[in-house]
Automatic annotation (TrEMBL):
Its main location: membrane. The keyword Membrane applies. InterPro entries: PMP-22/EMP/MP20-like. Keywords: Membrane, Transmembrane, Transmembrane helix. It is found in: Membrane. It comes from Sinanodonta woodiana. The chain crosses the membrane at residues 12-31, 93-112, 124-145, 151-174. This is Uncharacterized protein. Gene3D superfamilies: 1.20.140.150. It is a multi-pass membrane protein.
Length: 179
């Protein structure tokens, strides 16, 4: 395992560490309900803060926080037409799966002696990074173009993760061209 890492180029090593960072950022952004947040006052003059993610939404006042998963009725009432929201969920899920595949493939490319430095593994890991970046960014573009309130930190983490996966893909491409 150590031999493969020592033989790996600096581009592959940087791509590996960036892919880990991007995966962690994407995982946090994917699961947390803070893609947008906004405040409003109820009829009882109580300020309420609403946090929406792509899988759950939370409502908080100064006394209590409660969260629920989306279902057909809540998604429809929160977002009207659901197709764009479902497209966001689909692309973000595909991006998460591609991110996991990219991470596994980069580990195979760098650390596993039987596959270390193999061109096909390098190409597959590069393609997985680009697929992760593309799907994550498509989900972000769809969501960002439809939401009219404040985008929040989970959304930003996924944006950053998509960009970092793109950079990892470019570094792996450079690694392929240098060999």
């Amino acid at each position: 395992m150590e031999e493969g890492y020592k033989q790996a180029t600096i581009f592959a090593k940087i791509a590996f560490f960036l892919a880990i960072l991007a995966f962690l950022l994407d995982m946090i952004g994917f699961y947390t309900p803070y893609w947008q947040s906004y405040q409003f006052m109820t009829n009882h003059l109580v300020w309420v803060t609403k946090f929406d993610g792509i899988w759950r939404f939370c409502t908080a006042n100064m006394f209590k926080v409660w969260c629920r998963s989306y279902n057909y009725e809540t998604t429809y009432s929160n977002y009207g037409t659901r197709s764009w929201f479902e497209a966001t969920q689909a692309f973000e899920t595909l991006g998460f799966i591609a991110a996991l595949a990219a991470l596994v493939l980069i580990v195979l490319y760098i650390f596993v002696p039987q596959t270390s430095g193999k061109r096909i593994i390098g190409i597959l890991s590069m393609l997985a990074c680009f697929a992760a970046a593309g799907c994550i960014m498509l989900g972000i573009i769809i969501y960002g173009s439809k939401v009219e309130r404040n985008l929040s930190w989970s959304f930003a983490l996924c944006c950053i993760a998509g960009i970092i996966f793109g950079v990892s893909g470019v570094l792996l491409l450079i690694d392929m061209l240098k060999k």
